[in-house]
Design brief:
Length: 250
């Protein structure tokens, strides 16, 4: 029962879309601020407006609107459409191949696709370990903003979704030859029997396209699993499928 709740919570949590538009940030006192996120602090976000830069307390934000697209992102809620995606994907040994989105990953030999998790935009794959204790999703979406702004939007959602949210580390890295951020955080999911979980997430920037390779497990398992998670996220490769992988397709 716990594992079922765990899968449902995180498949919904990670399926969020961040449309390309100017933000309208709505505050608890009714104030509406129009601008773009440009910085991030522990308890505040920095927004560039027509009147200069402003700092806003995260706790004062109730919603972030994208009026050009007619969409709203409220912290902790999904703005993605629930349209199912048709994804051609397969596993060959330790190589995961996504032919639709043209990328590969290296995963442990006992990992497999989870057919119970539908592919709904922007999630393009959902994998798990054989024992059902370790998970991975890849998300691809468009966002007309900086890597810092994108990360800030994600963190607003994570803070709303998890109790005792705590960011443990953040470091700039290169993955697939592109600029990326590697984040680690932990929190408690009230919708999954208050299960403490820990994430390792790579955010890969390519113009206005952002890819997230998110891995997670129950917090007590994370320390022993972290090296494996780091190998998985760093193995992400896009821009074409190797010929050997295409030939090996079942």
């Amino acid at each position: 029962m716990r594992r079922t709740l765990f899968l449902q919570v995180f498949s919904l949590l990670l399926a969020m879309s961040l449309p390309a538009a100017a933000e309208e940030i709505l505050l608890k006192d009714g104030t509406k601020i129009v601008g773009h996120m440009s910085g991030l602090q522990a308890d505040k976000i920095e927004v560039e407006t027509a009147y200069g830069k402003m700092q806003i307390k995260r706790g004062d934000i109730i919603a972030i609107n994208f009026p050009e697209n007619g969409t709203t992102v409220a912290p902790g809620l999904s703005a993605a459409k629930d349209a199912a995606l048709s994804i051609e994907e397969y596993l060959h040994g330790t190589q995961y191949v996504n032919k639709t989105r043209k990328f590969t990953l290296s995963v442990p030999p006992d990992w497999k696709n989870d057919p119970k998790q539908p592919r709904s935009a922007p999630v393009v794959t959902f994998l798990r370990s054989q024992d059902g204790m370790r998970f991975l999703t890849v998300t691809q979406e468009e966002f007309n903003g900086s890597l810092v702004s994108y990360k800030g939007m994600l963190e607003l959602t994570y803070r709303k979704a998890f109790g005792n949210y705590e960011e443990l580390s953040e470091s700039p890295i290169k993955i697939d030859g592109k600029s990326a951020l590697l984040l680690s955080f932990r929190g408690i999911s009230s919708k999954a029997d208050n299960l403490p979980v820990q994430f390792l997430v790579a955010i890969i920037s390519s113009g206005t396209s952002y890819t997230r390779v998110a891995t997670w497990c129950a917090e007590p398992l994370f320390h022993e699993t972290q090296p494996m998670f780091e190998q998985i996220v760093s193995s992400y490769h896009s821009g074409g499928i190797p010929a050997v992988a295409q030939l090996a397709k079942p």
